[in-house]
Amino acid sequence: MKDFVIAPSILAANIACLGSEAERVLAAGADWLHIDVMDNHYVPNLSFGPMLVRALRAHGVRAPIDVHLMARPVDRLIRESAAAGAELISFHPEASEHVHRSVQLILDQGCRAGLVLNPATPPEVLEYVLDKLDLVLVMSVNPGFGGQSFLMRMLDKLRTVRRMLDQAGSKARLQVDGGVKEDNIGQAAAAGADVFVVGTALFGAPGSDYRAAIAGLRRVLASAPVI
Ligand code: DX5
Ligand code: ZN
Known about the structure:
With 227 residues, the protein is an alpha/beta fold. It has a single domain, classed as Aldolase class I (TIM Barrel, Alpha-Beta Barrel), CATH 3.20.20. It is 35% helix and 18% strand. The protein is built from eight helices and eight strands. Strands 1-8-7-6-5-4-3-2 form an eight-stranded parallel β-sheet. Strand 6, helix 5 and strand 7 form a beta-alpha-beta unit. The radius of gyration is 16 Å and the shape is globular.
């Protein structure tokens, strides 16, 4: 079976207890932590920055920290996120003047590099940097907020990007982000995704039972008709 990655978006966690929330969700079986950096310019919301990555590392988090930059410009935040302990850093091409250079900057920091496709952004933007990418993030909501509904139209884009990656012989991860829940994660996996960002469906689980929520997601993934 494919090694699927569950990456909780801590934007949906109890922000007053982020350290213990991170511990609990990783102990419950999550693989990565997804950190949504929002600057209230590129997206109409303000969240947290690289200092949170540093704090989580100091708190003892050893799992991969996946920083999703919804900010503009990105280059300084790339350096700061890497220095703070990020393992993966992804950004939106619309937020960089020189996308190829920003991807290379992530790689030069020793991190894995990702590019993020907004719902209206075509996969063609990947073409001339695909060989450098470790991750492609397909947004299944418009960036800026958790708790939105999954845009089913993005399943087509996942299939297209999966074909692009396979044809290029790329080992990059294909991540889907936004509105992922038990009732759509199987379709996202069948469309080619292998990393699943889950915010509300996990941190809003009944009784905050993260273990049961992750087990439910993995049960659906285990029976997904994966290509
Ligand atoms: C939205 C963020 C997502 C979001 C996921 O801009 O990039 O990571 O927090 O949360 P849910 O799963 O609640 O949509
Ligand atoms: Zn995100």
